[in-house]
Design goal:
Layout (H helix, E strand, L loop, with lengths): L17 E5 L6 E2 L2 E2 L3 H15 L4 E5 L19 H8 L4 E3 L9 E4 L6 H5 L2 H8 L5 E4 L10 H4 L7 E3 L1 H10 L10 E8 L4 H11 L3 E6 L1 H10 L14 H14 L2 E3 L3 E5 L7 E5 L8 E5 L1 H12 L3 E5 L12 H12 L3 E5 L1 H9 L9 E3 L3 H7 L14
Parallel strand pairs: 1-4, 1-7, 4-6, 5-6, 7-8, 9-10, 9-15, 10-11, 15-16, 16-17
Antiparallel strand pairs: 2-3, 12-13, 12-14
Helix pairs in contact: 1-2, 8-9, 10-11
This protein binds 3-phosphoglyceric acid.
């Protein structure tokens, strides 16, 4: 993990052109409001640069959430319009059907309302190309590990470039790409959150590379269930316990220490008046594991303090509820205080930093990507970054 990267160059002028720009404005929403605008704000430099070039037309594409090919009104990208218009200072037209109008700047509906986006369907790729761009810009670093239609469908068809955010992320992360599969002394990977299926490939990649792995959040619940603990009524993924067991075995054979919670903060539900800290072996029935407990926090902090490099993605519990936020707050603060290399990423992690008022400047880099950051660091090829002329 040594810095040696060449800074990539910027994309050429879009003057007079029709441009499609794929951004990742997968923002967290609560009651129809954006709770953390970081991903929108991080996309502004590219959008502003393109607009300054006076393109003939600018089409903005993004997804929000995982609607799985269905129209889910709460996940409409319409929610982004006021923020975009305020910051860009231009009128932005909204398009529901991914077709072009005459408007100079157009924001399109959530790409994942259309099944062809995630399946990378040729007909859907052709539909997107129907916007007739003369240039395609990928500024969605956070989605660049996905071979989705909007991420790869323009490659080889029109000149494709990396946007400023992609360039910034690549510049910041490339010095830390894991060079080969061997244990890096002092490297700790901290994983949390809920998306087990996106964490499994990454856990496999970092097994035999990280010296220590600290696992919290709902991901840990699945591991605990795999080890035979009763998860009670906790969120966990029963169909993934075999994968979890396999990862634990691989880790043991390859010298990576995996640390799971030894105690947890539980309640019968997020609103339940009774909250208690319990050893994991005492969880049962209606109890839900909603945060890591104080003993786990202490031992995770200890490992973090003795690490020389930390890669973190995902929260330790349901940190959007103050009663279950301590684990995330304590662990993120401990990482922020570490004087080694500290990389943190993912939508939920960004939101937690903001919510807990932890200064992002304390980290070596705060990445807009979660899964994308981990896959990039593990050296896996990123479909969305291939074929970009300025990378
Ligand atoms: C993210 O939030 O990490 C990106 O927007 C990608 O989302 P996904 O994991 O649902 O593909």
């Amino acid at each position: 993990m040594t810095p040696d990267a060449e800074p990539p160059s910027v994309f050429p002028s879009a003057e007079g052109q029709c441009v499609v720009v794929r951004v990742d404005m997968n923002v967290p929403l609560e009651g129809g409001h954006i709770t953390d605008p970081t991903r929108v704000l991080e996309s502004l430099p590219t959008l502003q640069t393109l607009l300054n070039d006076e393109p003939r037309q600018l089409h903005i594409l993004t997804h929000i959430g995982r609607p799985k090919g269905r129209r889910v009104p709460e996940l409409s990208t319409r929610v982004l319009l006021p923020l975009l218009e305020e910051h860009l200072g231009v009128k932005v037209a909204f398009r529901e059907d991914l077709t072009a109008s005459d408007a100079p700047v157009q924001l399109h509906e959530n790409l994942r309302f259309f099944a062809g986006e995630e399946s990378n369907d040729p007909a859907f790729r052709a539909q997107l190309r129907g916007l007739s761009p003369e240039k395609y810009v990928n500024d969605a670093f956070a989605t660049s590990h996905r071979a989705h239609a909007s991420m790869v469908g323009f490659h080889g068809q029109v000149p494709c470039y990396a946007g400023l955010l992609v360039l910034k992320e690549v510049r910041a992360l490339s010095p830390y790409v894991i060079p080969e599969k061997r244990i890096i002394p002092g490297l700790t990977v901290v994983l949390g959150g809920a998306k087990m299926e996106t964490k499994i490939p990454v856990l496999r990649q970092f097994t035999g590379v990280a010296e220590q792995m600290l696992i919290g959040g709902a991901v840990a619940n699945t591991f605990l269930a795999a080890q035979g603990y009763d998860p009670g009524s906790s969120l966990y993924e029963a169909e993934m316990t075999d994968d979890a067991m396999e990862i634990l075995l691989q880790a043991e054979q390859s010298g990576t220490g995996v640390h799971l919670p030894v105690d947890v903060r539980c309640a019968d539900g997020l609103e339940s008046p009774l909250v208690l800290d319990a050893p994991v072996e005492d969880v049962m029935g209606s109890m839900q594991m909603l945060d890591i407990g104080p003993h786990t926090i202490a031992s995770f902090r200890e490992i973090i303090a003795h690490s020389s490099a930390i890669i973190c993605n995902g929260t330790m519990g349901v940190n959007t509820h103050p009663r279950f936020a301590a684990g995330t707050r304590e662990i993120f603060t401990a990482i922020a205080k570490n004087s080694g290399t500290t990389l943190i990423g993912g939508g939920d992690s960004l939101e937690a930093l903001q919510r807990e008022d932890i200064d992002p400047q304390q980290f070596s880099h705060v990445c807009t990507g979660g899964g994308a950051m981990l896959e990039y660091l593990s050296g896996k090829p990123m479909p969305g970054l291939q074929g970009l002329e300025n990378l």
